[in-house]
Amino acid sequence: MKLRWLCREAILLFLCGLLAAGCGLISAPEVPLTDPPGVALAATATAVEPPAGRVLERGDVNLTHLNFLIEEVDIAGQPMAITHIYSEYPRYKWVDASGEGIAAVDDAARAALVYLTDYESTGDSASLNKARRLLNFVLYMQADDGQFYNFILDRAGTINQTGNTSFKSSGWWAARAARALGAGYRVMRSLDPTYASQLDQAFERIRDVWAGEVATNYGKYDQLHGVQVPAWLISGGSDVTSIAVLALLEYDRATGGQDAATRDLLTKLSEGLAVYQVGDDHNYPFGWHPDSAPHPLPGMPGEAPKRSPWRARASNWRGVNGSPRRNARPIPSTRGCWPERLSASGVYSLPSFLRLPMARIAWSRRL
């Protein structure tokens, strides 16, 4: 038994060391950085090429498969791009989401973020072109009241307005869309002020929807299973709210922190995220940040959770507005909850005697 315990501890320490080092042991192949033939920026876009002689490097980033999932289309007379939902083994052809549609804002917005980030890092005009087309699709999917639909049913742009993953909402897909709009506005301000203004107006419409929802419930709490749940979280979830905070941070960065409405909403949503924490260093569930109001507690050891309760998003909103109080909140989670999760069954390849019967961890952190 002692040998098994030592074996387990040694392997867990090794795994934690790999995670801390960023798991940078596997390098992706380099991708040629050339613009696809016949592709040009939309009429109002301004291409900014890297300095002459500069070699563009992406390091371990490989955009080949994402590029494959992107399809350029024209909808309502506008150049757009969609992100295909699935690509399955063995032929990896595009596969639609059955009953939902061929493409969604949820995916297109995240792809736009990838290309905007790549453009900022490399100056590659092909990435800027893709980001702009994807942002056009995001704009197309916004309703007049600021909320968003999610799926289109065909390449003509027929919007799925009734599906349970596509109805008009200020929740998940709206938060994804807002983050892309905020980043797009920040990047495009110096490249194309006219286009940036469109992104700005679209962002403000969804921000104002959130502001109205938050104002209705700010300062109120619900009690569920003995846990005090902030009533002003967007769609009742800290997961969705954390993405909204990231969207607001993009816009706040673009405006230099001078937009009062954005700052006020940032403060209130960050407060909701900070206080929605359960347990501490020594008490279960060890500083947990629940992902939703209906399920504030994770499954107990040996019990399957009703919903994956850990999505690794709490760390994304640290440092909001530089508040020491908010900065300090994730620390108990880092000291108590994360070690527990890293030793849980999220590492599926470990021998069974090394795992605890707890819920899985989500390894993706940013998009």
Features:
two-stranded antiparallel ribbon, 41% helix, 367 residues, mainly alpha, 8 strands
How would you characterize this protein structure?
With 367 residues, the chain is mainly alpha-helical. It has two domains: 65-192, no CATH class; 218-367, no CATH class. It is 41% helix and 8% strand. The protein has ten helices and eight strands. The chain has helices spanning 2-20, 64-69, 105-122, 125-140, 172-188, 193-217, 238-254, 260-275, 324-328, 330-342, and strands at 70-75, 78-83, 86-88, 93-95, 103-104, 151-152, 221-224, 227-230. It has a two-stranded antiparallel sheet. Helix 4 packs across helix 5, helix 5 (172-188) packs parallel to helix 7 (238-254) and helix 7 (238-254) runs antiparallel to helix 8. The protein is globular.
Q: Termini, distance in Å?
A: 41 Å
Query: Into which percent range does the helicity of residues fall?
Result: 40-55%
Number of domains: 2
SSE class: mainly alpha
Largest sheet geometry: 2 strands, antiparallel
Helical segment count: 10
Instruction: Report the C-alpha radius of gyration, rounded.
Output: 22 Å
Q: Any idea what the shape is? A: globular
